[in-house]
Amino acid sequence: MLKTMGYIISTLSVVLLGVVSWKAAAQDPILLDCLIAGMLLSGAGMLLRWLAYRAEQQAKRRNSATVLHLVARRNASRS
Fold this sequence. Notes:
The chain contains 2 helices and no strands. It has helices at residues 2-25, 29-78. Helix 1 packs antiparallel against helix 2 (29-78). The two termini are 41 Å apart.
């Protein structure tokens, strides 16, 4: 949850910095395109990092469940 909040805060900071820069960048179409692209790429990068984090967490849970199952099975066969 803490890592997720960090990604949300980082995304909001990119939006806020973009809002502050918008007026100056609007004077030059190339600067505006760069600002928009930078904001989108930053948001996309954070989304991909968050998705990778979630996938890692799910893999850890699956591995833990497998280990617990194997231990329980071994203990049951000893009885």
